[in-house]
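Hey, weird one. I pasted the N-acetylneuraminate synthase sequence into the form twice and got a warning about non-standard characters only the second time. First submission, copied straight from the form history:
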Amino acid sequence: MSVGFKIGDRAIGHGEPCFVIAEIGVNHNGSIELAERMISAARKAGADAVKFQTFRADRLVVRDTPTAAYQKTNTGETNQHQMLSALELDARAHERLLKHCSAEDIIFLSSPFDRDSIDLLDAMDVPAFKVPSPDCVSTSYLTDMGKRGRPVILSTGMCAMEEVMTGISTLRNSGCNEIAVLHCTSCYPAPLDELHLRAIPLMQEVTSLPIGYSDHSEGIEVVLAAVALGACIIEKHFTLDRGLPGPDHRASLEPAEFAAMVKGVRIVERSLGQARKEPQPCEASSRRLGRRSLAAARDMSPGEKLSENDIILLRPGTGLAPSLEVEMIGKRLKRQVRALTLYSMGDFE
């Protein structure tokens, strides 16, 4: 059983409503006004939280680092440092976005990509930290974050299970005990046959922590499958328009699609119910009228003994249950029973 905790006023863990994060990331394209419009749209679409990325390009990447293949395809930019520099948000921008989230009644989250960014978010009193997948193996980074006394959501794209467990141990050893883990495949978009959603229940079993899913596939179907497999957090990239310039827009959902995803998540989690098999209230009428009872195959007279050929199974299920058929064979009737009517215990001596 996963050990739950709260992010803001939202309970996180198995059995709680799925916590849905709209990953704005860098889809604001460096515009605070666009970011604010995205926050409002995400709240309207049903997201519980929005998540940004907090970084300084100089603290994140060597200046001549090339862009990843998908980044180059989506932006035409070949230099990762130059691309990221245009997407930085300073402290004042963060405070403005936090204030806008508060006004919209949606939780503000961000992934810090360096220790100065951890300091900034900590000073803002964010309700949780989100670890980006590449930093699941960054020991000093995780140690610094874990000391801050805040819940941590740990993304695990590109990780082997051993690396996931090491990341969790690093956080715990630094004092963090409120941890959720997100299964993830860090491709944009991620191929369906490399998503391996069955890792979700496996990670639940191995870690005993709340397990979620950060999705980079196209569409919403995979997210719904992840929820059905037990994901209690969903993170999905969000944009106002997939046609906007930028590295992540093409792998994001637009507002109407995101709203459809959230609706689907709520339907799936409601349908999951409890791990038990028993008749449900809505089945009462069907159970009574659709099941069968022991009935007379022919007209029967007092004193006759019931044989196998004297029994037929007919609806409704309000008489003697079919499970009593063998037990009733050989019993003697004490009164007349007409063909195609239900037997009752009172018919027999």
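That's the output from the first submission. The warning seems to come from a hidden character in my clipboard, not from the data itself. The chain is about 35% helix and 15% strand.
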